[in-house]
Amino acid sequence: LRLLPQQRYLRTERAEVSALERKRNVLCCLITRILKVEKQLHIDNLVFRVIDACQKGELRPGVQFLSFCCHSVDVLSCVLHLLNQGYLRRQEGRPQVLEY
After folding, report:
1. Which one-letter DSSP state was computed for residue 87?
2. Is the residue at 1 inside a domain?
C-alpha cells in the first residue's frame, strides 16, 4: 500500500465550508439580536439592517466583529433556516412581518 498526501483542494474546500458556517452563524446571531430588540419587523427592513451591521462589523454597541460582505440572499437563507428551526415566526395575516 502506498499512502498519498492529502490533496490541497480538499483542505481548501474544508476551509471554505468552515468560513461559510461562521458567516451563517454570525448572520443568524444578527437576525435574532435585531428581532429580540424590535420584537417584530418587516422582512425587508430586517434584511437591510443585517446587511448594514455586516458592513459596519457591529453586533451591538461595544461588540465588534470582522466586517464582511453579505447579500440579501445570504440573509434570507438564514431567515428561512431560523423559521424552520422555530426561532422565528411569521405574523398571522401578515407573512412579511417576522417575530422573535
Report:
1. S
2. no
Q: Residue 89 is part of a domain; what is its CATH number?
A: 1.10.10.10
Question: C-alpha distances in angstroms, 34 versus 3, 38, 41, 59?
Answer: 50, 6, 9, 9
Q: Single out the residue of 56, 52, 58, 59 nearest to residue 32, CA to CA.
A: 59
Helices 72-85, 8-38: axis angle to 10 degrees equals 70
pLDDT in tens, 36-68: 999 999 999 999 999 988 888 766 555 556 667
Please give the full DSSP string across 47-80, using - where no structure is assigned: HHHHHHHHHHTEEETTEE-------HHHHHHHHH
